[in-house]
């Protein structure tokens, strides 16, 4: 196992960037470039567990029913913070991820994948459940679905992963660069232009925050 | 109520108690089913899943009776036995464990009766008031 993983590495979860490494994150519909200034693990434990039936202020999830997508407060971060999370349901329900609240995560043109109790069977480290949450007001919303023909009294989800503190990288321009040239470079950085990023940001790890 | 089975022939499936209870299994809440003289529902198969029966237990407070476990043909009337008929002795409890039960997979077969069945688990008891509870392993 390498010290730094690929972002959806199929092994146990590990850091996607070390302290002082650069990351380029697709967030708010553009690429933003940061340096990691601090990282810490977020071990799988009871505070990182959420019971969605109680969170929705109801007493059960109906047979074949749905708890409408809702914010998961334990996964809210401030600006300058990023979460790198994997998760699984502890009860026989399916989780549907939205990031932002209106944008599905794990989607294709015609479908929206879910994370179920058996996802961990073929994917024991839950790598396919990996997602990132980046900054304030870009929260993850979780919808819960009950595949059972009977109502269930609880729908617990367990999260775990890493927390990163990050700082925006301000590109340094050579003296004499005009405002128009700077603007053009900034636009190319936002577009994620590989050569421009290599020149102005340096080596970086590319990763998506919200859905697209 | 549910857990993933981690080893054995049903590894990777979701173990749970039968999801019906009450007289005839009419209540869609896990628990003990009280037989009627006819078919009683023991477990409803979730949409898109199938299951194996891993344990059956019963207590017969009445006279000697028979129990036939199986599913129901799509005519909604004809029982489809999946296991040999069991004798439930008067005043005794008994059961079938994983080793004694066939690996019959219960799943919806949408063909018309007699080829198709609803895939739910039922018991046909010769008398009423026998208490039955089951455990199943669901494949998702």
Task: List the main descriptive attributes of the protein structure presented here.
heterodimer; A: about 210 residues; alpha+beta; 7-stranded mixed β-sheet; 3-stranded antiparallel β-sheet; about 15% helix; B: about 140 residues; mainly beta; 8-stranded mixed β-sheet; 5-stranded antiparallel β-sheet; globular
What does this structure look like?
The complex is a heterodimer of chains A (212) and B (140). Chain A is of the alpha+beta class and 212 residues long. Helix content of chain A is 13%, strand content 33%. Chain A is built from 4 helices and 10 strands; from the N terminus they run E-E-E-H-E-E-E-H-E-E-E-H-H-E. Chain A has helices at 52-55, 119-122, 179-191, 194-200, and strands at 22-27, 30-42, 49-51, 66-71, 81-89, 94-99, 131-134, 140-145, 156-168, 205-208. In chain A, strands 1, 2, 3, 5, 7, 9 and 10 form a 7-stranded mixed beta sheet that branches. The mean pLDDT of chain A is 94. Chain B is mainly beta. In chain B, the strands form 2 sheets. In chain B, strands 1, 2, 3, 4, 6, 10, 11 and 13 form an 8-stranded mixed beta sheet that branches. In chain B, strands 5, 7, 8, 9 and 12 form a 5-stranded antiparallel beta sheet that branches. Chain B starts with a strand and ends with a strand.
